[in-house]
Amino acid sequence: MGSLGFSYDDSAPFPQTDHVDQQQFKPLDPEEFRKQAHQMVDFIADYYAKIESYPVLAQVQPGYLRTRIPQNAPYRPEPLETIFNDINRHIIPGMTHWLSPKFFAFFPATVSTAAFLGEMLCTGFNSVGFNWLSSPAVTELEMIVMDWLANMLKLPKCFTFAGSGGGVIQNTTSEAVLVTLIAARDKALERISTDDTRNLVVYCSDQTHSTFTKASKMAGIHPRNIRSIQTSIDAGFCLCPVALREAVREDVAEGLVPLYLCATVGTTSTTAVDPLEPLADVARDYGMWFHVDAAYGGSACICPEFRHYFNGVERVDSLSLSPHKWLLSYLDCCCLWVKKPELLVNSLSTNPEYLKNKLSESDSVVDYKDWQVGTGRRFKSLRLWLVLRSYGVENLQSHIRSDVRMAKKFEWLVRSDPRFEVVVPRLFALVCFRLNPDSPGRSTESLNRKLLEWVNSTGKAYLTHTIVGGVYMLRFAVGATLTEERHVIAAWELIGEGADEVLRSV
Amino acid sequence: MGSLGFSYDDSAPFPQTDHVDQQQFKPLDPEEFRKQAHQMVDFIADYYAKIESYPVLAQVQPGYLRTRIPQNAPYRPEPLETIFNDINRHIIPGMTHWLSPKFFAFFPATVSTAAFLGEMLCTGFNSVGFNWLSSPAVTELEMIVMDWLANMLKLPKCFTFAGSGGGVIQNTTSEAVLVTLIAARDKALERISTDDTRNLVVYCSDQTHSTFTKASKMAGIHPRNIRSIQTSIDAGFCLCPVALREAVREDVAEGLVPLYLCATVGTTSTTAVDPLEPLADVARDYGMWFHVDAAYGGSACICPEFRHYFNGVERVDSLSLSPHKWLLSYLDCCCLWVKKPELLVNSLSTNPEYLKNKLSESDSVVDYKDWQVGTGRRFKSLRLWLVLRSYGVENLQSHIRSDVRMAKKFEWLVRSDPRFEVVVPRLFALVCFRLNPDSPGRSTESLNRKLLEWVNSTGKAYLTHTIVGGVYMLRFAVGATLTEERHVIAAWELIGEGADEVLRSV
User: Fold this and answer.
1) What residue numbers bound the domain in which B253 lies?
2) If DSSP codes are grouped into helix, strand and coil, which group holds residue A475?
3) pLDDT in tens, A385-394
4) Is A220 in contact with B220 (Cβ distance < 8 A)?
């Protein structure tokens, strides 16, 4: 044989091999798997049971771990007991415990038993669903679950597969923004018949998540063409449609091309909600792609009393929302819906020979690899599917409401203490507040920095800060899954104690 | 109060709330978690125990699932038993079983008990490690594990944190390529003092993974400036340094700017290895960023007998390798090493107020958010850490060798049957072969297509195809974790049966 120029000695017998080696190492023996995975379940359940006892913010110094861990991987295997021991001694003390009920920083990352089970299943199957054929259930369940969630949010049909659009699970908002931005970029370049990206301009507010600027730069938008419209405390830090229109008008007058508008439902600093309806008018008038980042606030819209924050959503091109932020789903899980999936596919499709198959070529199936940055993808929908089924819409709504109720409680406590003020109106489960706003002759910012440091250094609560409109404020975000009202009250008492402390020391 | 213009009625009592609601729904009760997670462990262990009994390639039609699942999420919770039942009835039959020992398609995705435990732990902690402070152990363990793996691969110190470089875990190769490409792009634009990307050119071979073209387009490289250098069967489908130099020279003569070269160690179609040393000369002479995609082949370099494929690696700028492909790590896990992390940071850094902290500002810590597309990131290193410790370098080497030995066995079987030929030399654990190369008057391609369809439709083995150098060939990739020699032999017998069948029918 060897018509293509190679020659082999076909008659040589296959060399004998060392079968001992082969038989000894079985990295996935089902019974060993069962035994060890049960041990890990107990380890994690125990961790959850005692999580309250750990300092929530890690109290270690940079480089702490390198001094405790060998410089090289072991040559021979180590038993699981040794590893568990090291996790307890070296890893847990260096962690910030995001699942602690005393975690009120950033936005908490919410979790649940159902999501954990879904993630186990996703990992366990290890199905790679880059196209339909590579594992049909991976693609089909994701399409169904994305339609389910769209319906829970009362999104119009144009965002569902039952309509003419569709949803996809990205890892994070960053990717959702990046892929839609690239689709918008390529469409705009085609429309204006150029390959020069230098005139394309994108718009956001000074409250938009920093990942928008990052994604814009990644997509080749020049930093000078990223318009961050200034917001004000008077307007609740919302993106002002009038200011936006003015900025767009100026850009157009200078020969620039408006490309993409990113609005936010629940900004990171203060959970401001940009008004979608009037922003959509501007986007339409100038032919911009309009994306809504509802990473945090969007989840609340499964409750009728919050749904009005999505008014106008039928007029946007794409919408993203991260169930890991408020729908109990563990990281990473970002849901992206688009009206015109074909625009993602136009920009992101690849079609190498080794992935070709009749179904993909006939356009009768969805190949999710063409909706995302990468090629390979996990069975991501299982996690969300298990959450939605195990809890039902009813419990998820009650979970959102419970967090909001606790935040209201905290807000009420802040307002009851004349040394404090709530700085911006609370919309969801985040309270932005500060100590001692009015006292003359003292630096409010410095006092609040001291207070924050004092509180966090106790390990009994973890809060973060922000500065908006020039005002330094503390953020108290309720949402960690294990948080109960007693934790909120204890945190408030701790803050009060801290206030006594820092006010005494000035 | 209210110095910022808001007024509240501080005297109003906090409204009484419905505490029943709050107490009923506990999505992370540790004991309920324990109970259900144990059930899931058994479900997955049982799946592994009987995985051989499932057809490896799903035998369902597009849309199969939508007819079996309700159109909306349930309002009330459903019990876990119902969900397990649905998984058995509706999900498993629609899956392609990537972990089946009869899976020989694409590159298998390798797994292990240790990696599963690591992933459980990563999920369980749900630590979000966007910067050092957000969970120090997340960042520090990743730095250490990346140095461990670098040492196992005998990478020079310039790629480690112990030296002046460093590694980071990305989700997939696509992201590793994208972030390095963007760092290279921004550096090149600065060097040539322009903001016009239209003259930047990137280089690869016609065997480079399709994600490179996709990433290039995402980063704003014009499709006409993506040079895919033609390879040939005579040169083993390697990227030819002479042809590359010629292409670069022509581009430079036309005023274009060479930006980025992507070489591959173990191409997707045939596992060709591009020669790093002479390619590095070209990259150096023209000031290009040189990246090596060793997604599949790189893992083999932990064995001394394969390490020579990395000769010249000390001269590249970045290198990526996916342990989910051959180091038993489940999806997703792509390790990226760079010589100059500061170039990633320059392009990808964000610094919003709410993430500011003293340590990040003092530059004394690594903030991995500035090394990747997104902001949030999971405790990704736990999976790899558990694999390396639980098995040791010894067993991982033996695992690589065992797969190679089985592929050699298959190669030997192919060569023993005069109806078949091995099309390209086998380097790792992939055998590219075809049926009936020489018979006059018959379409070899059509015969092999029929053979592939016949084999896959049995559900007893799953292979895929490729076309390189105009030759249609079948790919037999050994590597699924549960595959033993008996599966390889059974697959070969099935292929022989298929050959009888299709040869009879022509």
Assistant:
1) 127-377
2) strand
3) 999 999 999 9
4) yes
